[in-house]
Design goal:
The complex is a heterodimer of chains A (285) and B (268). By secondary structure, chain A is mostly helical. Chain A is 81% helix and 1% strand. A two-stranded antiparallel ribbon of chain A has the order 1-2. Chain B is α/β, with parallel strands linked by helices. Classes of the chains: A mainly alpha (285), B alpha/beta (268).
């Protein structure tokens, strides 16, 4: 009989034999382990090289196609990045904050047994999801002033984005609240908590944890959709890229720079999102 | 309702003519029950016999379709058509403040520490000052032998520990009666004992409790009265020796015989 290729003869004393097995078993595992690690590293190195090659290829190709002068990048690049990116982040962060608040209220409405509250919430979700975001932005900026509601560009843009994302996120929060096990609510009720307290202290905190990955995705989508508010003269990344590119006769290069800004921002926030998710996963369950 | 033991006090839980329909399913078919102070009542019966529903009707986690429930002077008539009304909900809450409940799957709040679980309702519902609530919580944690886990999150506890924390959490509200809904059914066999020991201690100290259980051994040791429920009715009740050793009804005999067989099969 042999186990793992090693003879387990009858000649050795039982103790010495098992000792032999233990030592050589460990060696075998070690060599398997290092082989696996080598494979993993080879995989990582090759995929990193492919990434670098693709970035150079696509970036270089676009650059050649644009026929841009390097001087333009030197003079105008920093303006687009340093003025545009902060505005993009500011608009997105403000909008996602208000959208989250709207979404919680909307979700409570959707789940409410009060017909008025419930109808208002479902009307809101239906209307906003049924019309284009761009139309909503135009409406708030250009049409509301006719009703004597004049919002400056930034406020109008943030409002439109928050209303729009709030509607989509209402459904996310509704699902999150429903995903909290029924027993949690029952345990809280059995302890004499009134309905409002059960929701605020027991259900919502757990629902928020459940929806955090989805909200992170929404935020990353929002960073890109915030480019739409360039159309109402907010000086965010795309707006600056278009204006500067046009005046310097380098429209393509400016667009490439703007694209790089959005891409970089989403990579950064994806990184933080992944870290947040890992932390939540650790503290839970 | 005959109560044989002399250590029992006045009646503290009453159910009168309680019916429960789930759709067309008549789950409780007129239950009358009186439980006295310091009494430990165990409810046994086949799955689907209505024993869990009976328990959940006492604190209105299920609104009965008809009938009346009274706990420690709070009397509440089933009112399914106005179940959501503010007045009715407030009465239900008053009832629940007097009846603590333990669940099969513990239902500790996973986002709060053990201590957080224990003081949440005393502080926010009973409005007890925080340090006072903490002191009470620590006393009950000590009682269930888990004071050293007070700052852990529930996810770090074993099933048996979770249920003991849940018992301490219920006790922190100083209820008049504890309702146990199969408190050991979700536990690994080796963890059942620690929970039953805590429950037995409570029973011996004179805690009023109503327990839905499959642990016949425990019922024999700790019960003042055993109730056999069959098809939504109380078929037979009495002291544990009588119900478990010499049941009068055929159904009870059959249930106990089948139960014993499955236990033996499980032990093999």
């Amino acid at each position: 009989m042999s186990i793992g290729g090693f003879p387990t003869g009858t000649g050795t004393a039982p103790h010495a034999q098992s000792q032999f097995m233990v030592e050589h078993h460990a060696e075998l595992l070690d060599s398997l382990d290092s082989a696996q690690r080598r494979n993993l590293w080879r995989f990582r190195i090759i995929s990193a090289l492919v990434w670098v090659a693709l970035v150079l290829l696509v970036g270089g190709g676009m650059w050649l196609a644009s026929g841009a002068e390097f001087e333009f990048v030197q003079t105008s690049g920093p303006v687009i990045v340093l003025q545009g990116a902060p505005t993009t982040v500011l608009v997105s962060v403000l909008a996602i904050t208000f959208a989250t608040a709207l979404a919680i209220i909307g979700a409570l409405g959707r789940l409410s047994l009060n017909p008025i509250f419930s109808a208002v919430a479902s009307f809101y979700v239906s209307l906003i999801r049924g019309t284009p975001l761009l139309l909503q932005i135009y409406f708030i900026y250009f049409a509301l002033p006719q009703l004597d509601i004049v919002l400056p560009a930034i406020q109008a843009g943030v409002t439109a984005l928050a209303l729009n994302y709030g509607a989509y996120m209402t459904e996310i929060f509704r699902a999150g609240i429903q995903a909290v096990p029924r027993g949690q609510r029952e345990a809280a009720q059995a302890l004499g908590m009134p309905e409002q307290l059960v929701m605020r202290r027991i259900v919502l905190p757990q629902a928020v944890r459940i929806v955090i990955p989805a909200v992170g995705n929404e935020f990353i989508a929002m960073i890109k959709d915030s480019a739409l508010v360039s159309l109402i003269t907010i000086h965010e990344t795309l707006f600056l890229a278009q204006r500067i590119g046009r005046s310097a006769f380098e429209p393509t290069a400016a667009l490439i720079i703007a694209g790089a800004v959005y891409w970089t921002l989403t990579i950064i926030f994806s990184f933080f999102q992944a870290r947040l998710e890992r932390r939540l996963a650790r503290s839970d369950r | 309702m005959t109560t044989t033991s002399s250590h029992l006090g006045e009646v503290i839980v009453t159910m009168e003519g309680v019916h429960k329909w789930f759709g067309r399913n008549h789950v409780l078919q007129g239950v009358d029950l009186e439980v006295s102070r310091r009494e430990a009542v165990m409810i046994i019966g086949r799955s689907g016999s209505g024993k869990t529903t009976l328990l959940r009707c006492i604190n209105f986690l299920e609104e009965p379709t008809a009938g009346t429930v009274e706990v420690d002077g709070v009397r509440l008539q089933a009112d399914p058509t106005h179940a959501r009304s503010r007045r009715h909900q407030e009465q239900i809450r008053q009832l629940r403040l007097r009846a603590g409940m333990l669940f099969q799957d513990f239902n500790l709040f996973p986002h709060m520490t053990v201590l957080g679980n224990l003081i949440e309702s005393p502080v926010r519902v009973r409005r007890i000052p925080r340090d006072e609530a903490v002191a009470t919580a620590e006393r009950y944690l000590d009682k269930v032998g888990l004071l050293n886990r007070r700052d852990e999150y529930p996810s770090r506890l074993s099933g048996g520990q979770k249920q003991r924390v849940a018992i301490a959490r219920a006790l922190c509200m100083e209820p008049k009666v504890l309702l146990f809904d199969e408190p050991t059914s979700a536990l690994d066999p080796e963890l059942i004992g620690e929970v039953l020991r805590v429950m037995e201690e409570l029973a011996h100290e004179g805690t009023t409790m109503i327990v839905v259980t499959h642990e016949m051994h425990f019922a024999r040791e700790a019960a003042d009265r055993v109730i056999f429920i069959h098809e939504g009715r109380i078929l037979e009740q009495g002291p544990p020796e009588q119900i478990l050793n010499e049941p009068r009804e055929d159904e009870t005999q059959q249930f106990l015989r089948r139960f014993l067989h499955s236990q033996l099969a499980g032990a093999e």
